[in-house]
Amino acid sequence: MTDPLAAAALAGESADTLLSLDVPGEYLAAHIKAEDVAGFRTEPDKDVRKTIHLGEVPMPELAPDEVLVAVMASSINFNTVWSAMFEPVSTFDMLNRFARTGGYTTRHRLPYQVIGSDASGVIVRTGAGVRNWSVGDHVTVSPVVVDDQSFAAHDDAMRDPAMTAWGYETNFGGLAHYTVVRASQILPKPAHLTWEEAACINLCGGTAYRMLVSDNGARIKQGDLVLIWGVTGGLGAFAAQLVRNGGGIPIGVVSSDEKVALAKRLGCEVVINRRELDLGSGDRTPEETAAAAKRLGRAIRAELGEDPHIAFDYTGKDTFGLSVIVVRRGGTVITCGSSSGYRHDYDNRYLWMNLKRILGSHAMNLHEAHEMLRLFELGRIAPPLSVVHPLSEVAEAAYAVQTNQHVGKVGVLGIAPHEGLGVTDTAKRQLLGEDFLSPLRLDHNLAGVG
């Protein structure tokens, strides 16, 4: 059962109606508990289903620069898994550090953390200092929390030393019926997308945009060959579409024959099954890494006649040494993470003697996130949603990501009772078509769009 305010937001009631209803004192949320940290360190399997709890938590006070969003849908990211594993560090340590900045941030120091770094929904309250957003607006949430009074943030918000990830390094995340976020995190929801589609695009989509398209990243151009590791994952699925949309040639790497067709649906001209080339893992010897990279390079040249300009690498230990070798002379390896391990071994001779570059990238600033969303509005890219769970199955959804049983993005409904809701531009949706909008859907049996 949803409360009257949530029900009114779901029904599309007016701002006056939403403002006339009370904000509940508690709300349903997926959360982790500080009391679980010590005991979980000795757990051999680190199963996140043991630490993700679903239950009522107190509604936080709203700061003047914040909005309260009734969450219609959210999605699972790897940082949700890291939160629930308390690795590589406990997020409660990060909450305490964030709270030390004072003021309203002290609210985040709690014995529990509401997790989740993606959301779409309806604004139901605004703080006194919020100007550009109103109650009733349909929005999505950027996961980037910055200090708008920081000097560095006005050059590039990601350079703000105090930048934090909402729902990972802060509290009150998106896997819940409500979330509290700063107005500087809010973006308009694409009107032709459902709630669950809109909830799966900001974190991965914005990250991939900054890595590939932005002046802060690799700045792909027409004709660039881009090697994309894990192309059917959330980040990889966005990367393939962005490369193709920008006139580049996406080269997808997958781990099974079943994922080849999915990679091609995302626009990959060449798809390589890493198991067929015996690319192995990050535990190779230097000689084994060089030999694997040469096999990969030969496979790419056999298809396209040249080496990649860019390697899009977020998997880390297993792939980074290969990326450094396989990109062409003067090429770029861009990285935003290390899902297979943070310690990277690579042969530096291939880097310095061939004038290559390694670029680090993290999340996205609000302008980059807005530019990425504009591509959705233009109908150039599609949400890589593969499956959707109710909030009651949030722990199972996170476990699927933890154990790599997923492709693309795994959605989680919040207040929305079923899939297919939230579309307010049906004409655009019909023009684009369900096949385009569902490149990774494991089924097309939506509960009805509208």
Précis, in short:
The protein has about 450 residues and is α/β, with parallel strands linked by helices. It contains 16 helices and 18 strands. The chain is globular, with a radius of gyration of 21 Å.
What features would you describe in this structure?
The protein is 29% helix and 19% strand. The protein is α/β, with parallel strands linked by helices and 450 residues long. It has 2 domains: 253 residues, Quinone Oxidoreductase, Chain A, domain 1 (Alpha-Beta Complex); 156 residues, 3-Layer(aba) Sandwich (Rossmann fold), CATH 3.40.50. The protein is globular. The C terminus is likely disordered. This is Crotonyl-CoA reductase.
Give the tags:
single chain, 450 residues, alpha/beta, Quinone Oxidoreductase, Chain A, domain 1, Rossmann fold, 7-stranded mixed sheet, 6-stranded parallel sheet, 18 strands, 19% strand, ER, crotonyl-CoA reductase activity, Crotonyl-CoA reductase, GroES-like_sf
Main β-sheet description: 7 strands, mixed
CATH superfamily of the largest domain: Medium-chain alcohol dehydrogenases, catalytic domain
State the total count of DSSP E strands. 18
Cα radius of gyration in angstroms: 21 Å
Mean pLDDT: 95
* Straight-line N-to-C gap: 22 Å
Specify the CATH architecture of the largest domain: Alpha-Beta Complex
- The gross shape turns out to be globular
Tally of individual domains: 2
| Unreliable stretches | 444-450
